[in-house]
Design a protein that fits this description.
Elements: E1 18-22, H1 29-45, E2 49-53, H2 60-67, E3 75-79, H3 82-89, E4 101-117, H4 125-135, E5 140-143, H5 149-161, E6 166-169, H6 173-182, E7 187-191, H7 192-201, E8 204-209, H8 224-227, E9 235-243, H9 248-262, H10 265-273, E10 277-278, H11 286-307
Parallel strand pairs: 1-2, 1-3, 5-6, 5-7
Antiparallel strand pairs: 3-9, 4-7, 4-8, 4-9, 4-10
Helix pairs in contact: 1-9, 3-11
The structure holds D-malate (MLT).
D-malate binds next to helix 1, helix 5 and helix 6.
Keywords: Receptor, Signal
Family: Belongs to the UPF0065 (bug) family.
Protein name: Tripartite-type tricarboxylate transporter receptor subunit TctC
Length: 312
């Protein structure tokens, strides 16, 4: 029978360290999630999962690296909502942003926060909106490039207040946060995984969370709807990917290691501190991840087209 054929070609997986590409700079929100899950995945896989930051071009350079890697499971990608917006935002890419990947599983969903340098001349969202309308392009809005969550949030925000600011792009919101704390940029919309500790320390000022409900770990920050921008909502989701053609048993093994991380109590605690939570294990299947991703591409396409800001 076919089942008796020896699997000569299939080396045991993993046979060497696994590279987890983070498509943004070290010290930022994607990096934070990646380093946490990589630790538990390493223990489960019996090989180190090594985080590799490949930032730049709104997360497309890291995605390109993984799409072009050998499909053997030793190179994987942790990416976010950009996987759903990049296919619409970019007319030309050196990789296939939809068919270039296998899905391994969803990881987490993260609220965003509208934040500013701590000495900004506004104390609540309506004052901030008034300031933006008055000063417009004299204000600098930091983001992590076209395709970043901070880009998407800024696009929706500038559309909601009907005023443009000057955009300053970074390789990730980790380095952007340093400039916001230093006060050399004015505003940013960034994930709670990167902003929570700065908000608590008072090194930046928060004006709103972008979810329909308040975030328990930042309970005194109003939602954008409460602050006067009804319906201004965006949540960042993360998923784990492998290059297209990675064998199904390897994907299954990676998924099993991901599930270990999602069920780890230390990770759940750290995620909760940072305003997020691991996805429920039942939702962390490759199939549900793929369906969610494809639905999100369809959800964002008309909104991005209406906002009309594309990469070349
Ligand atoms: C990062 O890790 O730097 C972020 O996820 C950037 C972003 O998408 O805004």
């Amino acid at each position: 029978a076919a089942a008796a054929a020896p699997a000569l070609a299939q080396a045991p997986f993993p046979s060497r360290p696994v590279s987890m590409v983070i498509p943004f700079a070290a010290g930022g929100p994607t990096d934070t999630v990646g380093r946490l899950i990589a630790q538990v995945m390493s223990a489960d896989l019996g090989q180190p999962v090594v985080v590799e930051n490949v930032g730049g071009a709104g997360g497309t350079l890291g995605a390109q690296r993984v799409a072009g890697a050998r499909p053997d499971g030793h190179t994987i990608l942790l990416h976010h909502i950009g996987m759903a917006t990049i296919p619409t935002l970019y007319r030309r890419l050196a990789y296939d942003p939809i068919n270039g990947f296998e899905t391994i599983g969803l990881v987490t969903e993260v609220p965003m926060t509208l934040v500013a340098r701590r000495n900004i001349e506004a104390t609540n969202l309506s004052e901030l909106v008034a300031l933006i309308r008055r000063r417009g392009e004299a204000l600098n809005y930091a983001n992590a490039g076209i395709g970043a969550a901070s880009h998407l949030c800024g696009l929706l925000f500038m559309q909601a207040v009907n005023t443009r600011m000057t955009t300053v792009s970074y390789r990730g919101t980790g380095p952007a946060m340093n400039d916001l704390v230093a006060g050399t940029v004015d505003l940013m919309c960034d994930q709670t995984t990167n902003t929570t500790e700065h908000i608590r320390a008072g090194t930046i000022r928060a004006f709103a969370v972008t979810t329909s409900e308040r975030v328990p770990s930042l309970a005194d920050i109003p939602t954008a709807t409460e602050g006067g921008l009804p319906g201004f909502e965006v949540s960042v989701w993360h998923g784990l990917y492998a290059p297209r053609g990675t064998p199904a048993p390897v994907i299954a093994r990676l998924n099993q290691a991901l599930l270990k991380a999602l069920q780890d109590s230390g990770i759940a605690q750290r995620f909760a501190d940072l305003g997020t939570a691991p996805v429920a294990p039942a939702r962390a299947t490759p199939q549900i991840h793929r369906e969610f991703w494809q639905a999100d591409i369809a959800k964002w396409r008309p909104l991005i087209q209406a906002a009309g800001q594309f990469a070349d």
